[in-house]
Structure formats: C-alpha cells, structure tokens
Write a structure and sequence with these properties.
The protein has a five-stranded mixed sheet with strand order 2-3-1-4-5, with helices on both faces. Helix 2 (about 75-90) packs parallel to helix 3. The chain starts with a strand and ends with a helix. The chain is globular, with a radius of gyration of 16 Å. A hairpin with a 5-residue loop joins strand 2 and strand 3. It has helices at about 25-40, 75-90, 120-135, 140, 165-170, and strands spanning about 5-10, 50-55, 60-65, 95-100, 155-160. The longest helix is centred in the middle third of the chain and has 18 residues, at about 75-90. It has five helices and five strands, in the order βαββαβααβα. By secondary structure, the chain is an alpha/beta fold.
Length: about 170
C-alpha cells in the first residue's frame, strides 16, 4: 500500500547531513535536501512546506517545523500533528506516512519541563493526539453542517523504524 504524502518533521537546526537516509525514499530524501539547501523548509515552529513529487501517482512531501531544538517537547509534536491535519484537509490528502524524528532519551511535556522516559511512546501519542485534534470540526457534530462541510476520513501512519512493509508504504 502507498500513501498520498510523506511527512518529515524538522527543527530549525536541522541540516542536510541530518536527513536520515534510511527513513525516506530516494525521491523524498532528495526533495527534502533541496528544500533545506534552498532555505524553503526552515524548521520554524508549525511552519508547513508542501512539495509535489513526480511519479506515476502524484505524491506530496510535507515538511513541518518543530522550532528550536532546545525547546523541543511533546507539545511541539502535538502542535505538529495539528498542523499536519490542517494541511491534509486543505490539500485533500487522504493518507500520509509521518516519519517520527530522532528523539532524545527523555522528553518533557512542555518546553522546559522535566524529561520523561521513554520518549518514543509519548511522542507517538502526542503526534496522534494533535492529528485527531486538528481533524475535529465542531459543526460536523452539532448537526448544522451540510454534507459538503463534512471532513473526509484521513489515514495517518506513524513510522518509527524501517522494515520491508515500511519501505513499500514509503515508495
């Protein structure tokens, strides 16, 4: 199965050498390096950059900024999840694979908070929470929305490591 978009999360300090070659397909990695080199994707908090990738089926690379790495927290990931959900809705993207960034051993809930270990399960939870919050539209549940106002379903896959099935989804 393939997805309509691949999502990369970057910090302001992310350089081309920090793009993990094993976590992205060749097209996504090349586009991400070009966006970083050109200064288009800057890593500013909640900044969304969209890039259309070529191929038989048009796909997108969505780059979302996490801000300053010194202020990195679960809240940054939650906000990135909201930004992704809104970008997917605006661009009518039905499915995306989000590559979870390299995480420190511990991660605080808010900037400056005491880090909690292990970081990975909490990071995945924060990204999923943010995505669900960003997809929520109150009018849809009040009964006042017309059928055309309803948000279509979207599928998000959180990629934390690469194996054969992951490579197939990213290609």
């Amino acid at each position: 199965a393939t997805c309509d978009a691949v999502v990369a999360l970057i910090h302001k300090e992310t350089g081309m050498e920090e793009v993990n070659p094993g976590m992205f397909g060749a097209d996504e990695r090349k586009a991400l390096v070009e966006l970083l080199k050109a200064g288009i994707a800057r890593g500013k908090s909640n900044d969304v950059t969209l890039h259309l990738l070529g191929g038989a089926k048009a796909r997108r690379l969505i780059v979302i900024g996490l801000g300053n790495i010194k202020k990195f927290s679960l809240e940054c990931l939650r906000e990135a999840g909201v930004a992704l959900a809104r970008a997917m809705t605006a661009q009518k993207v039905k499915s995306a694979a989000l590559v979870v960034p390299v995480l420190p051993d511990g991660l605080g809930g808010m900037p400056g908070a005491e880090p909690v270990q292990p970081a990975l399960p909490r990071a995945v939870e924060a990204l999923a929470e943010g995505f669900l919050l960003g997809r929520f539209h109150l009018e849809q549940y009040k009964g006042s929305a017309s059928p055309k106002d309803k948000t279509p379903n979207a599928h998000l896959t959180l990629v934390t490591g690469v194996n054969g099935r992951t490579e197939a989804a990213l290609s």
